[in-house]
Specification:
The protein has a single domain, classed as Na+/H+ antiporter like fold. Helices cover 79% and strands 0% of the residues. The protein is built from 15 helices and no strands. Helix 9 packs across helix 10. The chain starts with a helix and ends with a helix.
Length: 312
């Protein structure tokens, strides 16, 4: 029974992906849960983060610089070719690290403290940058004065990111016992991430398979864009992390994105065709995460067998 539950934990993300694809008509009805799920995940993540434990590392600055450079370069290089693909690539670079990344990092034996701090930095970088970036790339904001558009974006994104932080740190200082209880169960963020995948993939595939005319070539280009940015993030993050002996944390920090936030930004401000890109980014991201968890568990089993003298 223990091995069965271990198997389910390793492959939860893939199961969620498959269920979202097959049951897209049902799960897309729950798109309204996007904001509460996102805030719940942020709250659980921030309970693991003490203001005194925020330790900044040079690699944090390097990863943020790559995120900013990718956001700018993808827009200026691709927008003359195809504005929608440029939106997709820029959004993939722009959205912050997923709150579940720290959980995956911990399960893989990586430096969770480093990644929690980076999640904090990238999440609040978007609060500052979104009012400047989204009005430029959003077709929904066309014709709206820049300052008005920027303030509107800030008023919607800032509370979503800041309220969970205030709640987590307020609980820490005012109700420490309750905070400790929540922190001990903060691993639930992994399963909240799986629930979010059901909604994200269900909504994306409902859009992709809905009746009407579809530009399949453009959708294929969106899928390729999501896959390319995802592969870039894991490859570059791991390579840079090796320099500081943190390949797992750096790879997850640069590549594991908060796609629910990206979906929410897309539905609110952009062409819904961008959902196809995010869906395939999610597929690549979570299949790779499931593979990493499987490989890590297999390596741990081999080490255990060798230490116990079992040659099998």
């Amino acid at each position: 029974m223990t091995s069965f539950f271990a198997f389910l934990k390793q492959w939860t993300l893939v199961i969620a992906l498959a269920a979202g694809m097959l049951g897209h008509g049902f799960f897309s009805q729950f798109a309204w849960t996007a904001t509460p799920l996102l805030m719940a995940m942020l709250f659980l993540t921030f309970t693991r983060l003490s203001p005194r434990e925020l330790r900044f590392h040079p690699l944090h600055g390097v990863l943020l610089a790559i995120q900013v450079a990718g956001t700018l370069a993808s827009w200026f290089l691709l927008s003359p070719v195809d504005r929608l693909i440029a939106q997709e690539a820029r959004l993939c670079f722009f959205i912050p690290t997923a709150t579940a990344a720290a959980t995956i990092c911990s399960m893989l034996g990586g430096n969770m403290g480093f990644l929690v701090t980076y999640t904090f930095l990238s999440s609040f970088a978007i609060v500052a940058a979104a009012p400047l970036v989204i009005p430029v790339i959003s077709s929904a904001q066309a014709g709206i004065p820049f300052l008005e558009s920027a303030m509107g974006v800030f008023s919607r994104i800032a509370p979503t990111m800041l309220l969970p932080l205030a709640a987590a740190w307020g609980l820490r200082f005012m109700l420490p016992r309750a905070h400790d209880f929540v922190r001990r169960h903060s691993g639930l963020s992994y399963y909240l991430w799986a629930a979010m995948l059901l909604v994200l993939i269900g909504t994306a595939f409902e859009t992709l398979l809905s009746p009407g005319e579809h530009d399949r070539l453009r959708e294929l280009a969106g899928a390729a864009t999501g896959a390319a940015v995802c592969i870039f993030g894991f490859a570059v993050g791991r390579r840079l992390g090796t320099i500081w002996n943190m390949p797992i944390a750096a790879g997850q920090g640069l590549a594991q994105k908060n796609l629910l936030l990206g979906m929410w930004i897309t539905v609110t401000y952009m062409d819904t065709g961008v959902l196809v890109c995010l869906a395939f980014y999610s597929v690549f991201q979570n299949v790779f995460n499931a593979f990493q968890l499987w490989r890590h568990a297999r390596q741990a089993q081999r080490i255990h067998r060798r230490s116990s003298g079992d040659p099998a």
